[in-house]
Recover the amino acids of this structure.
């Protein structure tokens, strides 16, 4: 096993899967000549040619729509959308077609396409390079959604996404693209969709997170260590959710804090809380507290540290819950 | 191409012999009868809201006949019945309008994509498909139908841009019936003609009389040949005037020009072609009757079959959304069955 | 007061507000010559001219983007999007601009635009005329969201939306456009944003709903009447939410069923449940149960009755909760 | 228009007297110094990621000078500093790139809209604005900047369509620097030229040398006159070649053509114009120094002011999202203050 950064693990997965299956085709803005603005697709054009690693026109609905057609022609397109907030022009195709076309054919045709994009804040970037749009994806029927927090999962979940017969949106936490570093299995590596990852075990309180917030959750768990035994659960696949893992942890600790970067209202944390409110009500020893981004535009970066869920905010929430 | 039986002489089309001319006629009649009967079925409450295509048959059949069997068609709702020309059963299309899952089909069985309801979003599908086939080295061409209104949509633009850049073997076929529901072409775009948009995508744009099935056929065939030869996409604008309401739910009286409607009805495409064939001497009264009876019989059988479909099982709410429904979806179905059963 | 259908109340609000404020401008596909496909804008073009009731090109991102510019030029545009599922091409403009432009000007400019659209299922329509897209809107910072259930609220909320300095999305339940009928105040009528409506009082259980689901909630309350005293709360403004009303009802009954047409995952019902799980945990005497559309594409209409939350499903949920 | 000092003679522009020519020079130098200093500030860590516009100054200044003060400019990120020509302080624009709320401005104070970061989405804003002003009977014209890549976006298409149909007094100004990050124009569109897209929107399209500030000025002025006269929008394509990285984060070496870059650098717009003015005899060495010193001084002051801005208060996370933050937002702020304070 090699140590890799998260974005290198993404690149690795693409290499391995394109090697393995010649119907896998990578497309997007600047993915070819320059290997992607984050270099996630570096080397693919040289290795597999410009027909399998395609620099597209600057047209996100075109990318997503063409990918639907490519599936019908027998390809497995992996679309890179350059940034979270630049994925919105493709939402129409995603909601009305990507998520519905299999259904529309009575299950006769597969649409094994993958949408991957860097997402999330904290990177000191100009406006609109910081969104956490998972709610838009996770609410959309017919697509699955995965968010890795570690290099190994970045490779394994992307591999699973590419092999999945259904459309999968993979959101990659760009904040940790080149800070999360870890062992990544060589060659083929699959992390099945729908399985959460127990980051650390604990008895008193569970922090549920995904993406870059897993690190924040771990930081908070460390900070709380002398006061409480904290379990950290990385959801990893938002849809389908590993309900069992979530409910098991809630049953064990009885206290749940949920961390999410996205604006609070109807964010994915709401879904997690709702599942708990419906299925774990007798286990809960206190409120389910969400620590989230706020219901305002993602701010100028001088203020982003105040906006993003911090270790301090998670510790504060956990403390309130432990003292409840 | 089709004359008026008087001062404007009839033309001929290379490669269309008597058999092909009659096949084309059958297609026109099938579409016409489908449309006319559907309107009746709608009034009888046997199908739901329905998008009338009366007067559009020449564009649909003319374009479809210019394709090879392996070529794909990407229809909008206006071309809901185009699949009939590819062997999709009448009952399937009627089921679609009846809101029944028997209206589902496998695009790969007929090389006809699903009916696209949102405006213009099928254009990038078709572009991606055609490009994808080209990448595989297959000679398949795709043809995508859309309306005049669709040319204002970003999806159209992005799809056409892709087709141009990828030199996709695609025919972008615009049904310019001059209305998008109540919005006239003059309020839709300031472009002199829709075909003028083609240059912006680096493809040829041709304009053709949409009520002349032979002109449509010929223009499309040229576009198909160009595509198959590797010379990329073509934009075909076929011009007609919508003589019917947009759909069964629409009352065009506040906006339509009744004189233009009357003119369009007088000049309608099936009658024009029938006149042509008669003048050419290849269509007899008996053949006309035979073809119309055949089409009506197909419709009769189709609606019977559609109505004989059993009520769909609730499991179909959940099936086919994903290749494998997961636990929560299975639990939802179980709960729903329990509640409906009790 | 006159009796009106819900869609007539919308039309009435537009007439009154356009009369009152000559900067109000209605725009959209087919809103002019034909008065809208549901006739919500009927008569406006004749009354106020083609410059203030504008048939636009068939381009939803164009409509939404032009509306942003119209605000900057001093107008108060009211955009009709023809159907729920045809609003998605405008999401990009909505998320990246409509919701952010005031913030981007440091609060110096108002963007008093309104987006209204018919939404929801049950109308025996072809594909994609049935979506309940409120999550996409409610999750988006910088916009407010209202959904009326009655003719009077349809008028009053739309009026409030038009007068509001911020962008407001008003979703109109098309299922009851011409079945919900009721007294509508003549002339100016404002229902302030952010106030829920207590539809009926009860002690044992609360059903929270909005839009066409309020009727379903009432039907369920009727059906349960001999067994339980059921309160029905119409949320009415999804954002900002009237938390007080929600929490007061939960505190009183201790049992909450939430009804929502949209797919379940990360739907607005999740937000309501999450608020309860965080702020009413000690009041709850049982799970918070959501009765929702399913996480699948909205089905062909022969099956839509099975998909849509029904009185039976709500009664079933309420019964389980009462027996918990 | 601008010659080469040899075989290609210099031209003159109606209405540009000596004062106007020197004003234009000041604007070019101000933009150039802003850009050059910004690159330095970025390397020094004093501003964040920065989109370089070296070589684009002629397009920006030439277009801006063709407008009246009451006309509005809708910039993309590439024109982040265009507001300097309208009185926006240097410190404001630097603050924008420093991620500081002092980078906010009120568009109505300068008739300059906010910097648009997503590609192409400002086009419908500008179309709606221009149309709205026309509806109010005001003579205001709007000019919107966007790149070659932007012309592939659905937003561009829909905005241009609106502008055409509404005959909006709008100049659609395309900075065709032939690259969208790493994507060359040939992979962006198959259109022969971008100006060819204009006909699809029913507007004139003109093509101009983007390194010749006088040519840009004149083409834009004609478009502005047309707009103000009620004759609707114009598409202006100004052609240059991007000689610098897309932005500070970009390394163009894997994709760029170094020879073309060298050529573009030799032919860069500020030097070209300086040569023109010298040949015309209206620019002395002393003036050159004075203008450059003035611009550098503005930059020095600007960065000092920007760096002197106090750290923004956390309340700014919540303010301005809505006209009135509601209870939940106020509670969030209070909680955040409590946690940060503790
Ligand atoms: C994205 C989208 N917006 C709006 C609609 C509603 N709608 C259905 S048909 C139609 C008019 C389409 O006109 P055109 O493209 O000319 O096709 P035609 O109906 O004339 O064949 C509209 C606006 C839609 N289906 N999709
Ligand atoms: C909708 C959207 N997609 C992608 C991006 C990322 N991006 C930033 S600049 C750029 C290239 C733009 O090229 P062009 O329009 O030619 O303008 P230029 O940068 O050359 O001035 C891209 C793809 C974006 N900002 N917005
Ligand atoms: Mg039409
Ligand atoms: Mg460019």
């Amino acid at each position: 096993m090699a140590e890799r950064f998260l974005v290198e693990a993404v690149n690795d997965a693409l290499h391995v899967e394109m090697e393995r299956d010649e119907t896998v085709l990578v497309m997007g803005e600047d993915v070819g000549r320059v290997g992607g603005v984050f270099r996630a697709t570096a080397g693919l054009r040289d290795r597999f040619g410009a027909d399998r690693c395609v620099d597209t026109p600057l047209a996100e609905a075109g990318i997503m729509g063409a990918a639907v057609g490519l599936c019908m022609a027998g390809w497995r397109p992996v679309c890179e959308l350059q940034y979270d907030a630049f994925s919105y022009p493709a939402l129409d195709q995603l909601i009305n077609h990507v998520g519905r076309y299999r259904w529309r054919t009575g299950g006769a045709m597969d649409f094994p396409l993958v949408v991957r994009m860097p997402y999330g804040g904290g990177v000191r970037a100009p406006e609109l390079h910081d969104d956490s749009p998972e709610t838009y994806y996770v609410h959309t029927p017919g697509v699955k959604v995965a968010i890795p927090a570690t290099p190994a999962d970045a490779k394994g979940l992307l591999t699973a996404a590419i092999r999945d017969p259904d459309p999968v949106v993979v959101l990659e936490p760009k904040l940790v693209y080149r800070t999360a570093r870890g062992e990544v299995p060589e060659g083929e590596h699959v992390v099945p969709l729908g399985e959460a990852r127990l980051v650390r075990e604990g008895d008193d309180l569970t922090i549920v997170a995904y993406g870059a917030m897993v690190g924040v959750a771990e930081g908070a768990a460390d900070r709380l260590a002398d006061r409480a035994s904290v379990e950290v659960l990385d959801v990893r696949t938002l849809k389908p959710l590993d309900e069992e893992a979530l409910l098991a942890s809630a049953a064990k600790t009885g206290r749940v804090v949920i961390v999410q970067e996205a604006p609070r209202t109807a964010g994915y944390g709401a879904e997690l809380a709702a599942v708990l409110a419906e299925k774990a009500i007798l286990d809960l020893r206190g409120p389910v507290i969400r620590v989230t981004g706020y219901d305002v535009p993602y701010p100028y970066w001088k203020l982003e540290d105040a906006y993003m869920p911090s270790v301090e905010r998670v510790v504060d929430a956990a403390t309130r819950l432990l003292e409840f | 191409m089709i004359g008026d039986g008087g001062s404007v002489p009839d033309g001929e089309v290379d490669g269309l012999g008597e058999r092909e001319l009659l096949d084309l006629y059958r297609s026109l009649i099938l579409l016409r009868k489908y449309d006319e009967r559907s309107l009746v079925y709608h009034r009888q409450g046997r199908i739901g809201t329905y998008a009338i295509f009366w007067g559009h048959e020449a564009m649909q059949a003319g374009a479809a006949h210019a394709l090879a069997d392996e070529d794909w068609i990407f229809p909008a709702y206006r071309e809901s019945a185009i699949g009939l020309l590819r062997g999709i059963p009448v009952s399937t299309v009627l089921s679609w309008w009846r809101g029944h899952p028997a209206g589902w089909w496998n695009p790969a069985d007929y090389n006809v994509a699903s009916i696209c309801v949102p405006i213009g979003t099928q254009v990038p599908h078709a572009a991606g498909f055609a490009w994808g086939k080209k990448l595989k080295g297959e000679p398949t061409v795709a043809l995508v139908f859309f309306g005049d209104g669709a040319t204002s949509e970003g999806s159209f633009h992005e799809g056409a841009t892709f087709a141009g850049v990828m030199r996709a073997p695609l025919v972008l076929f615009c049904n310019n019936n001059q209305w998008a529901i109540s919005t006239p072409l003059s309020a839709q775009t300031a472009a002199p003609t829709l075909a003028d948009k083609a240059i912006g995508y680096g493809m040829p744009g041709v304009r053709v009389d949409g009520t002349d099935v032979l002109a449509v056929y010929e223009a499309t065939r040229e576009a198909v040949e160009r595509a198959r030869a590797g010379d990329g996409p073509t934009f075909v604008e076929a011009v007609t005037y919508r003589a019917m309401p947009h759909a069964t739910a629409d009352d065009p009286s506040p906006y339509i020009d009744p004189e233009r409607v009357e003119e369009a009805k007088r000049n309608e495409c099936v009658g024009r072609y029938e006149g042509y064939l008669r003048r050419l001497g290849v269509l007899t009264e008996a053949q006309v009757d035979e073809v119309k009876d055949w089409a009506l019989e197909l419709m009769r059988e189709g609606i019977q079959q559609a109505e004989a479909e059993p009520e769909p099982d609730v499991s179909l709410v959940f099936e086919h959304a994903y290749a494998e429904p997961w636990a929560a979806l299975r639990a939802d179905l179980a709960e729903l069955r329990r509640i409906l059963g009790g």
In short: The mean pLDDT of chain B is 97.
